[in-house]
Amino acid sequence: MHIPEISPFSRLLRNALLTFLLVGTVALFSYGLHSWYREERDVRDNLLILSSFLASASQSFFDDLGNGLAPLGELLDQLEVLKNPEAARTHLLNFQSRHPQVRAVAVFLPNGATLINTALKPGEAMPDFRADPPYLRQLQADMASTGYYTVGLPEFGKAIKVWRFPVRHVVRDRGGRPKFLVQAAIPLEKEGTFLHQLPVPPNSFIGLLRADGYQQARYPVQDDASIYDSYLPGPAARMIKEHPDMREGTFSGASSWMEGDEQRLGAYSRLPVLDMYAYISVPKSYLVQRWWNHNAPILFSFMFFFGIFVAIAYRVTKREGLHSHELLDQARRDALTGLPNRASLHNVLASNISSASAGQNKFAILFLDLDRFKGINDTFGHAIGDKLLLKVSQTILPLLRHGDVLGRFGGDEFLLVLPGSDEAGVILITQRILDAFKAPFEIDERFLRITPSIGIAIYPEDGQDIESLLKHADTAMYESKRLGRNAYTFYVEQMGKRVRDRLEMEQHLRDALQNEEFRVVYQPIVEMQSGNIVAVEALLRWVMPEGKWLLPGEFIHVAEDSGVIVPLGEWVLRTACSQVQQWVSAGLDLRLAVNLSTRQFQDPQLKNKVLAILSETGLQAARLELEVTESVAMLNPDESVKILREFADQGIGIAIDDFGTGYSSLSYLKQIPADTIKIDKMFVDGLGSELHDATIVRTVVALATSLEKETVAEGIESREQYMAIQAMGCDYGQGFWISVPLVADDLARLLAGGTRLVALSGHAGSSVEP
Predict the structure, then answer these.
(1) 0.85 cut: is pTM over it?
(2) Whole-angstrom Cα distance, residue 211 to residue 348?
(3) Coil vs helix vs strand at 709
């Protein structure tokens, strides 16, 4: 029997397939290993920053509470609490209400007898700790301490009936002998501990560890007695014991006392003053999940394209005479991504309209545009932009169903055709696409963040021909951008008018810039302790021909989308620098803060423009601070760090604006050469009413302190907010209570009266914005 020989072409294709498989497998393994080590390093860096953050926040918590006990003790001494303990109850309860983490306040004699405890009603029997030798020994040791306050070991509170630890202050007579001791009890159950309110990754263990290896506080806890009543030699305790001189470090491993005995990664940092260590750990599954979230699209894409290659190889081997252009129909495919091009998509739409109309079915189209893609092209070049487009297409393809079509419509625009999809089906697929964009895209060792704006039109409700469907999907896409980007929107009839209004607004903006209708106003920034004006922030206003003043929220999004923001932002910077230099020449010591928009930050000529304006106006670089929002800085973190360092090297200050409202990587935040962190108004608004907002502000201040950065609180609108922020240690503040933004002449008149703007009894400055 004759066995046909394998043709040279088939042999060549088979060898190519084997080579591709071998090289691809090695490359995939190498990539996986490299990305795993990189992910683990990033997790450890973040944990180390969080532990440092927790250490600073914990020290601030103890200092705030411990230092508050001292004036309380003096007051009790004046009230002669030793003679009449009940006379102190009102003051103890007032102290307790000002410190919500405190469950009870008590007063003890040096011999251990209880004078009063707010957890017990008048007349109830007080616990007698003289019959409890271990407790009495600790109490007397604290009595002998020379510290301003002491933090005791966790114990089961006999009065409050839960596990707690005490913070104590000793009141002494003139000879230095203890008269009595004031104690605040901090509960350790889930809803009481100060730890459970801090922002940490899911399934984290956080806590405070004493230098002797005993737990001071931990969250979460399943069994308090097993955690706080004995020495638990976990990986953090072992690391601290082996390296007592290290102020911070990382650890990994499992503890037999942890539920499930799971492997964990963690970090610890020593508190600045107290002999304790703050620690945080996450399960290794957290690292695995992060690695998977960041790399799954690449793995899926490899498998997808490998499958395509195998399928093509099989067909070519079976039909040797068939040429590649007959397989792929390259004339109707996008040369970069291999996706159907615009001409091919028109055929796909025509076919779907024909099928849907015959069967009275629906189908949907999704118009997808990449947000701020032009900035990436301008910053990194078209080669990087092309690779990003390819990576985007490779990310979306595995998310689609059989029969769905993804094509490149042109530039950074993609079109998806989803046969047989109703609104619910479209939402499911669209949400998958948005979720896939949460992780950054790795392009040539750069991690680029980009988001899509998606417009959706459904046949036949939103159009019965190709032109209408495309027009309405495009209109809905621009609505997604108007609403903040990184979103999807279904077309509705009213959108057509909004698109026309937007185009009119864009033209009005260009005319306004040419006709000099914009004004710069200046909002004073004060030093919180002295109340003196130390800087001004330049803000933009649009003065309409009829005299109405428009705030940026009414037009800035159109300026950003249209690109008008670039020349407009340059005008604001030049105008503000010139004005501040005039004030400096007149003898005033002021700095200037100017916000950079997303488009400006992505302008490759930004550095040259800023330096040229400083040279032109004569303003010293050290007097200028450029504000970049957290979300803008994290769009392309590596490039952001590079750009901001170039400004810092010139002596220009950097501020991170709206901190805490967007995505941030703490490891990148540590690298950014920012001098200042601005606390967003949304957190300041909740002070006095929202416990969580107070905790966030306090922890942001602690974080900034640990990173050696200054803080500015935005949106201060009451004396109470000012006093609260001042007490938290915030460096600077601004807001309508201090002063509204003022035109240059009004601010000059205000400065003529001196730079002291805030006094505890009230405040000066204009209360009416122009």
Answers:
(1) no
(2) 69
(3) coil
